[in-house]
Every structure is written in C-alpha cells, then in structure tokens.
Amino acid sequence: MPHVSKRYGWFAAIGFLLPCLTGLMLFNIIPVAGAFVLSFTDWDGLKPIALQDGVPAFVGLDNYASILGGDEFWRVLRNTAVYIVLYIPLILIASIAAAMLLHRPYRGVSVYRVLFYIPVLTSWVAGALIFKSILSPEYGGVNDLLELFGIKGPGWLYDPHWAIPGIVLASIWKDMGFFALIFLGGLQGIDSSYYEAAKIDGASAWQRFRHITLPLLSPITFFVTVICLIFSFQLFPQVMIMTDGGPHGSTQVMVERIYRYAFSYFKMGYASAFSFILFAIIFLFTWLQLKLQKKWVHYDV
Amino acid sequence: MMFRRYAGPFFFYVTATAIAVIVMIPFFWMISTSLKSKGALTALPIEWIPKKISFEGYRKVFDVFPFARTILNSAFVSVMTTVVRLAAAAMAAYAFAKMRFRGREVLFAAVLATMMIPQQVTFIPLFLVMKELQLINTFTGLIAPSIFNAFAIFMLRQHMRTVNDAYLDAAVMDGASHRTIFVRLMIPLSAPILATLAVIAFMDAWNDYLWPLVMLTDPNKMTLPLALSKLSGQYATDYNTLMAGSLISIVPIVAVFSPHSNISKPACRWAE
Question: Could you tell me which residue ranges the ABC transmembrane type-1 domain spans (chain A) (predicted)?
C-alpha cells in the first residue's frame, strides 16, 4: 500500500514542521534556557560576552537571594495581592452578571453584547490613557460623577492608597466583556430542563441561580479565576501608562520591575532572576489548576 | 398580571442599559476630551460636551509625531503577524493531526508545554537573540516570533483531527501530494477556525505593547500603542492630543471587529 505509507515518516513531516520548530527553538527554548543561565550572572546586557575574562561573572544564587531578601520584592507582591483581592471578586461578579443579562432572549441583546465587548477590542495603552485622564482628581470625569452623589472622590492615581483601586477600575472595564462571553458560553451549555424542574418545585429566581447556575458554571468560574490570577501577575501596560509604578512604589508590579531592571538599570542577570521567580509563581497556579480542578468543580448537579 | 408580564423585559433593559452606559462613559470622555482645546481641558466645571469644538489635539498628534506612518506600521505589522502565525501554525497542525512520524506525541506535548511560559519570562533573552541577529528596530524582528504560536497550533490540530481520513486516503490514491492535500483540502476545511484565529492574531498584534516597546526605538517604525505611550511620556497633560491618538487607534479595530464579538469562544472550548 504505497499510497498510505506516504503519510508516514519524518521525511514528509519535516517540511510542514520546519517553520514551527524553528520558532520553537529560536524564540522559545533558546530564550528560556538563556534567561535561566543569565539569572545566575551579573551581566549588564551591554558588555560583550567574554567568558575567559569573567564577563559575565557567575554569581550563583546571589540574584535570587538579593531579590527574595530585599523589601522591594515583597512590596511588589503585596501590591499584586491588593490588586488580586479587589479585581477577582469584582470581575467575577461583573462578568457573571453581564453574562446572565446577555443570556436573556430579548430583542437587542446582540447590541448590548457588542457594546460590552468594545473595551476588549481597545488596546491597553489607549484604555490606560483614557482612565488616566478620566481619573484625574480635579479635572477627571469619575470624581465629577461621584460629586453628583455627594461623594468627594479620592486622588486616585496620585494617592498611594487609591492608585491600585484606580487600576482595578480600568481592568474591570477592559476585561468584563471578555469574561462575560466566556460565562455566556457556559450558561448556554446548561440544560434548561433543570430550571423548568426547579420552577415546578417552586424555587425562586435566586434559589435557581444559587443551586443550579452557580454549581454548573463552576468549571468556567474556576478557569476564569485561574486565568485572572495569572493575568494579575502579568500586569504591565496599565502600570506603565497610568502610574509608572508610583506614587511611592505603590503600584510597582513584577513585569514593570523586570522591564526596569533590564532596560533602564541594565541589570540583565538580576532581571532574568526576577522573571524566573514570576515564572515559578505562574507555574504554581497552572499546576494548582490541573490538580484542583477535579476537586472543586461540579460537572453535574 | 401586567406587572408580571413586563417585569422581566423592564428589568433586562434597565440593567443592561445601565451597564452599557457605564462601559461607554470612558469612550464618551475620550471623544469629548479629544475635541477640546488645551485651555478647556482644565476648565471648571468640567465640560462633558466641549463648549467649543477644537481639532487642536488631532492636528498636534500628526505634527509632533509621524502618526500617519504609525497607522500604516500597525496595519502592516498586524497583517504580517496574522499571515505568518496562521501559515506556520496550519502547516504544523496538519503534520500533528494527519501525518505519522516517530515522536509526534512527545513533540506536540512540548509545543503545548510552551503555553505555560509567559512572554514576560522570554522577552529579555528574546531581545538579546534579536540583537544578535541584528533585527532590533526592524519589522522582521517584531514579527518573527509569531511564527510559533502554540494556541493556534493546538486549535487547528484539534480541528484537523476531525477531518475524516477517508478524504485523505482518496486524495492520496489520486496521486495528490501532501502539499496538494494541505492547500486544497485541509485549508478550506479549516476556514472557520482560521478566521477566528486571524481575528485573535490581528488584535494581538494591533494592541501589543511589551514586545514593540523592547524592539523599537525609531519613531518611524513604531506601532500605535507604542507611539501613544511615547506621546504620553512627552505630553503627559495634553489629554486632547492623547485622546485624539487613542481614538484613532481604536476606531479601525472596533469598526472591523465588533461584529465578531464571539472570538472568546475558542477560549471557552479550551476551558472544557
């Protein structure tokens, strides 16, 4: 059967795999290995590499030790934690609520879907600039609207306590439409007979939501939560554009630090070690996801 | 009775409209600010609708920056990224889905494993690789990494696996080469998923910030998000200029892609 054997073997496959394998090697495996090696050196990224002259010098675990031993890393981690604590509950509530609305069979629902989705299409740089402008304490729209309700708005991005909440506000606005559509997919997958049965048994709308929708949505909720956690550690354009890490380092986050160390302070080795700590954190969440998914998630009522 | 009949739709339209208004306020703010003169930016009480329409911001964004050039750069880079990513991914997906060779599963697992590596870990050494290849400040360097995209390979491979082998065997019996099968059979059969992936790739490239920030320092090469961030560094308080630039960067992508708001569907499938 010569015609079938044509579909076997490396010789035939290599032509199709070549672009992908080149990319995998050149832009993934080599960089990751390179970053790992760099993280044990004091290289500045500028001096030409001459190992015989000790450039860059291997410093063992010094970079890791000084990151984990310094205050900065823990401050950055705390900033990220504040962001997560505010962002995750709010984004889950907002996007599930939006998804429940978009799931209703009323006319014009597709118009709302598009409107909710426009921030997702917007680039983070543009979105962050809009929020930097609208959150301006004196001349911004948000505080102007708060004043209508008699609330004196905070200094937002200029106040160390309110800068992260300001970034969270922008992130919710930007991400709600994206996650709402993911939840909408989940809602559409729930068999309507559950609701009909519950209605016959006299369950209220809240009871139906609490005991049918939420449990059956839990695989999606779990997935979204993990994605949000991972995204939170990758926070970057918001911070660069809106606050540049300030005021007083209150919005410094990991990727911003990595970028600064690599390209402003020219400490490539240190920055690489930082990036591997980030990698370890993200890896931990991915692993937890795979591990805990079975335990927490209901696939049935 | 009347109440029961209209309560549902009433609740729906009120809530959905309220959320839509909140979502739209920042865009309204952007448009309104972009049409203010510099003096009106700090006028109190705040002019939600500018008393006098001014195109100062729009003029300035093109005056102080090669912004027209930037728009073309973004368009070029986004189209090329999409083409390169999809072409390479489709080829690899075909090999993983329909060809048999030793180590296929191991290699595919390696491809999937790269999805766990965030861009933020690789961008420093990737920058050094590009420097070594003398590709800093070039579009080639900006676009090249998109030749490998694990998510696109995964999605296309899952789809191509569902194509019945009988088609392929029939084509092989008629003397078709792999190239013919790939181009004439697999690509057309994958058209819907390719379209979705194209939207994602284009948006990724159009909105990307970190990689252009690392790769480009020449204002004539910059893409829209990077140009906007440079402008905001120089003219931090000229919000009319910054909002004009933001609006210009948002309009094309919203105009083209808002009808395709179902693009997060693949992410949904990925979750299951």
Answer: 77-289
Domain B65-234 sits in CATH 1.10.3720.10: yes
Q: Which of A8, A107, A129 to mutate to test the interface with B (most CBs of B within 10 A)?
A: A129
The alpha carbon of residue A83 is apart from the nearest alpha carbon of chain B, in Å, by: 19
- The reply to whether A294 touches chain B by the CB within 8 Å rule is no
Which chain A residues have a beta carbon less than 8 Å from that of B148?
Answer: 19-20, 22-24, 27-28
| pLDDT of residue A288 exceeding 80 | yes
Token pair listed for B132: 């070594």
In this prediction, residue B147 carries a pLDDT of: 93
- Residue B56's pLDDT band, with cuts at 50, 70 and 90, is confident
pLDDT confidence band for A7 (50 / 70 / 90): low
A240, two tokens: 């660069």
Distance CA B242, CA A160 (A): 24
Q: Kindly indicate the confidence band of residue A297, based on its pLDDT and cuts at 50, 70 and 90.
A: low
Q: Cβ of A182 and B267 within 8 Å? A: yes
Interchain CB contact of A188 with B (< 8 Å)? no
Q: How far apart are CA B132 and CA A249, in angstroms?
A: 34
Q: Which residue of A lies nearest to B175 if distances are taken between CA atoms?
A: A3
Contacts of A275 (CB under 8 A, 6+ apart): A35, A39, A258, B120, B121, B124
Longest dimension (CA), chain A: 82
* C-alpha distances in Å from residue B158, one per residue of A233, B7, B198: 29, 44, 17
* Mean residue pLDDT across chain B: 87
What one-letter code names the amino acid at A167?
I
* CA-only gyration radius of chain B, Å: 24
Residues in B closer than 8 angstroms to A144, CB to CB, are 45-46, 48
User: What does the DSSP assignment read for B73-119?
Assistant: HHHHHHHHHHHHHHHHHHHHHHHHHH-B-TTHHHHHHHHHHGGGS-H
User: Domain map of chain B by residue range?
Assistant: 2-57, 65-234
Specify the pLDDT at position A93. 95
Which pLDDT score is estimated for A55?
A: 73
> Is A46 or A211 the better-scoring residue by pLDDT?
A211
- Please write the tens of the pLDDT for every residue from A45-65: 777 776 677 677 888 888 999
A residues 12-51 closer than 8 Å to B (CB): 12-13, 15-17, 19-24, 26-28, 30-32, 34-35, 38, 45
Helix (H, G, I), strand (E, B) or coil at A127: helix
Q: What is the per-residue pLDDT across A168-192, written as a single tens digit (0 to 9) for each?
A: 999 999 999 999 999 999 999 888 8
Q: Which domains does chain A have, with CATH numbers?
A: 2-11+18-53 (no CATH), 64-296 (1.10.3720.10)
The nearest CA of chain B is from the CA of A71 a distance in Å of 22
Predicted confidence at residue B225, as pLDDT, reads 94
* Euclidean distance between CA atoms A43 and B131, whole angstroms: 15
Per-residue model confidence (pLDDT) at position A295: 65
Task: Return d(Cα B146, Cα B149) in angstroms, integer.
Answer: 6
